[in-house]
Structure formats: C-alpha cells, structure tokens
Amino acid sequence: MDTPATKKELTHRRIVETAARAIRRGGFHGVGVADIMKEAGLTHGGFYAHFASRDALLAEALAQAGRESGERIAKGAAARQSGGASAFRAMVDGYLSESHAGETERGCPVAALLGEMPRQAPEVRAAASERVHGLIATVRKALPAGTPASHAPLIASQLVGALQMARALGDGAEGKALLSQTRRHLLAQYDAPSRS
Fold it and tell me: I need a labelling partner for 174 at 20 to 30 A (CA). Which of 25, 37, 54, 166 fits?
C-alpha cells in the first residue's frame, strides 16, 4: 500500500515539474532558480531544502520532462493504433505532428534541448544521455518486424531534426510542409503497410 506523499515531497515534485516545463520553454540557460521557485509559488530561500545545486534540479527536471513526454507519446500512439495505425506510423505521426511542434514546453526534451545538452555539467549531460537513449528505445520498440535495430538512432535523428527545423521555420506553411514531408518519407521507408 502506497503511503501518501509528504508536504515536502509534494513541494519537491511541484518544483521539478515547473522546471521540466521551463527548460523546454527557455533552455537550460533560461532557467534561473529564483524564477522556477517563483513560478512554483515558492520562495527562493526554500530551494536548497530540496536540491544540492541548480544542476541537480536540471538533471531531475530533464528526467521529469522525459517521463512526461514519453507518457504523452505513448498515449497518443495508443490512440492512433486503436484506429488501425501501425506502431511505427502512430509514433511518427505523433512525434512529427503540428501540435507537438507547437508545444515546446510540453514536448520532447531531446528536440527542445539537444543543442545545449553537450555544454552542461556532467550530471545534466548524464540525464540528457538517458533521454536520448530513451527516445531511441521508443523508436526501436515501434520499428516494424524485420527492421534492423541499428536503424532506430537514424530514425530518431530524423525525427528530432525535422521537429527542430519545423519549429525554427515557424508555424506557417513551410514548417508544416517539412513535418509532412518527413512523415511521408519515414513511412514510405519503414511502415510495414507502405512497403507492400
């Protein structure tokens, strides 16, 4: 039987969830401790009762962002699969959707933060590496039978790159076209029904 969370645990969770949104919205350097605490409705002075350092918060926030994004991807994929889509099509359609491109703060932390990940402190880089490996594992799990597992990192790279470029192009026709073209390209190459 689970014991109810303590007030300190609930507060800690609120800080991490706030930071998880903030890092995807503003990047690692756009996240200040005072701003996170204020957004979470807390005082700056209470930060060190929960975290040893800003980097410790960033590492936890990145892990939380990965969990949130993974759950969101899985939920969307399950809905698409219930409508008859293959696991691969469901994953690609969800990841390269216009809604995912438009919701940076709730989306994949790899796509939101990839360029900044190598320049972080070791504990944040380790959390970032876990997120990248998690995305590759998600792709690998969705691959059609018979597709070499070694293709998963290549596909993950295409997904992330297309999403980043579409975001950079904006929510107009050019960004939407890039998402659509990349979806079609990946599905033509890898989706089992498309190969027949």
Answer: 25
Q: Distance (Å, rounded) from C-alpha 86 to C-alpha 139?
A: 13
106: domain CATH number? 1.10.357.10
Does residue 1 belong to any structural domain of this protein?
A: no
Q: Is residue 2 part of a domain?
A: no
pTM for this one?
0.90
Closest CA to 127 of 5, 14, 16, 6: 16
Question: Per-residue confidence of the chain (196 residues) as pLDDT tens digits?
Answer: 678 889 999 999 999 999 999 999 999 988 889 999 999 999 888 898 999 999 999 999 999 999 999 999 889 999 999 999 999 999 999 999 999 999 999 999 999 999 999 999 999 999 999 999 999 999 999 999 999 999 999 999 999 999 999 999 998 999 999 999 999 999 999 995 544 3
Neighbours of 44 (CB within 10 A): 13
Residue 100 lies in a domain: yes
Residue 126 lies in a domain: yes
The domain of 147 spans: 7-195
Using only C-alpha atoms, the chain has a radius of gyration, in whole angstroms, of 18
Gap between the Cα atoms of 17 and 11, Å rounded: 10
Count: domains in the chain: 1
